[in-house]
Amino acid sequence: MLTRATDNISCYNLNNGDMLREATVKIGLERIDTQEGITVEALLDSGVTGLVISSEFARKQRFKLKKLDRSIYIRNVDSSLNKKGPVEYMVKVNIYYQGYRERTEINVIRGQKWKVILGML
Question: Which CATH number describes the domain made up of 7-119?
Answer without folding.
Answer: 2.40.70.10
